[in-house]
Amino acid sequence: MTSDIRIGNFAAIRPSEVEWRCSVSDFTDTCTVRLPLSTHVLATQPPTPVDVLMTRGTVVRQEVQRCEFAKGDRVSVRLGYDGNNREVFRGFVHRVNFGAMLELECEGYSWQLRDRSITKSYRRTTARQMLRDLVAGTDIRLSDRIDDIPLENVTLQNANGLKVLEWFQKECCCRVFFDFDTLYVGASQYALQKPEVRLRLGWNTVEDRELKKNMGEDVVINIVSKDSTGRVSRLAPSGRAAADVKEVKARAGLPGDFLRRALDEMQQDEDARGYEGTVVLFLAPHVEKGYVVQVEDARFPERTGRYFVEEVGGSFVPDGGRQTIKLKNYG
After folding, report:
1. What is the pTM assigned to this prediction?
2. What percent of the chain shows pLDDT beyond 90?
3. Which stretch of DSSP H or E encloses residue 128?
4. In whole angstroms, what is the distance from residue 31 CA to residue 74 CA?
5. Residue 208: φ, ψ to 5°
6. What is the DSSP letter of 303?
């Protein structure tokens, strides 16, 4: 196993352990890097006589510990074998913890919106314009696949950046996630074009017992909105009826074609049958969220098929490197 980890001004960092998680269902990517305490925490002497200890009548300067890393340092983590390292995480140090090891809790590019607030009123705007205003002055790029949703009468009063992303999720039925430093907001979690890889269960995988049959339930999704006059609009799949109806609320005035695409994908998720769950791999082949994997299973051929990667988590520890990917049937 090999790694290429850069934190702040330091490169070629040798970690004790690394864990990471990225998902299309969560716009906060995370990574934890654990390092030897003695290597990256340095002893210094305090500059003033105030910091002293009295030991049996002798004045002794108190030793102070200084960490090489700090909150806000940029982080890039590349892992692999024999120098063929692939990037699994890019972001910033969010928190520094001291213990048996030095632990750096890191967050993806959502970190640049965590302490950011925006105050602005829009009579008429678009989702893309709102996002441009939100990320101005950061290193965040906007995906060219963002849905250009027209919006009216939106007021943000000292709104936290992450709360704005949640607003798009809850009020506009959007999928919101980062692809490293690129932000996507739109109707579909499948919008990003990612490579396709092949997995042969039992050959280039470690464990697949959690890839199980989803029997599904008979649920119909309705998108419900209410305008300023109290008039309720309801969007439902055509020709569908079920004992269980799940209502998803949306703000009034969103375009019908956008809501239809969002509804179709939500209903597709509810209607999904077949196999889903997690598969554990080595660090190769490299997989990212949004990938499509072609699974081959000689033992249980019914599990053979194409799957969408909803989430990737992993670990890089002395016992070995692993990726755990969460799959859903892709048809």
Report:
1. 0.89
2. 76
3. helix 127-135
4. 12
5. -140, 15
6. G
pLDDT in tens, 41-95: 765 555 555 445 545 555 555 555 678 899 999 999 999 999 999 999 999 999 9
| CA distances to 108, 109, 139, 185, 297 from 182, in Å | 10, 8, 9, 10, 34
Strands (E), 172-253: 175-179, 182-186, 196-200, 212-214, 219-226, 232-235, 244-249
Query: In Å, what is the CA distance from 135 to each residue of 128, 155, 318?
Result: 11, 17, 39
pLDDT value of residue 105? 98
State the alpha helices, DSSP H only, in 173-297: 256-271
Distance, in Å, from the CA atom of 247 to the CA atom of 251, rounded to the nearest integer, reads 13
Query: In Å, how far from its chain's centre is CA 138?
Result: 18
Structure tokens at 1: 């196993």
Tokens in use for 4? 């290429």
Question: CA-CA distances (angstroms) from residue 199 to 160, 287, 306, 327?
Answer: 41, 11, 10, 12
174: tokens are 């959007």
CA atoms of 117 and 158, how far apart (whole Å): 5
- The pLDDT value given to residue 51: 47
Q: What is the mean pLDDT of residues 108-116?
A: 97
Q: Please report, in angstroms and rounded to a whole number, the separation of the first and last CA atoms in the chain.
A: 34
Q: Which residues of 23-51 are buried (b: 16+ CB within 10 A; e: fewer)?
A: bbebbbbbbbbbbebeebbeeeeeeeeee
**pLDDT, mean over the chain:** 90
Token pair, residue 299, equals 């033992």
